[in-house]
Amino acid sequence: MPDLATLGTIALMASGTYLTRILGYLALRNRTLSPRMRHVLDSVPGCVLISVIAPAFVSDRPADLFGLAITMLAATRLSILPTVVIGIVATGLLRHVFGG
């Protein structure tokens, strides 16, 4: 069972992701965007996701570090949704195997 701080962090990150999508749509709905600007806006959800997993970079738990390495490898080959699924499943299985 996650603690209150974890649930609050997840809710705030989800709200941040949702707000960036909605505010971007409302502010830019009648404008033509350059390909570079589109690429920047497409990268925003990934940046929010990185802020969630960044604490794992300094983790002292082997399961988290191996899960992070698997996620980074998946991110080099796949889009964001399969990468997130692979990262969650791999880290869950590794935590089960290594404990913690």
Written overview of the protein:
It is a single chain. This protein has 100 residues and is mainly α. It has helices at 4-28, 35-53, 62-77, 80-98. Helix 1 runs antiparallel to helix 2 (35-53) and helix 3 packs antiparallel against helix 4. It is globular and about 50 Å long. The model has no long low-confidence stretch (mean pLDDT 86). This is AzlD family protein.
Beta strand count: 0
> Which percent band covers the strand fraction?
under 5%
**Gross morphology:** globular
The biggest sheet amounts to:
none
Share of helical residues: over 70%
| Termini Cα gap | 13 Å
Number of helices: 4
Helix-strand category: mainly alpha
Radius of gyration: 16 Å
Low-confidence stretches: none
SSE string, helices as H and strands as E: HHHH
Mean pLDDT: 86
Organism: Comamonas resistens
Keywords: Membrane, Transmembrane, Transmembrane helix
Transmembrane segments: 6-28, 40-59, 65-94
Protein name: AzlD family protein
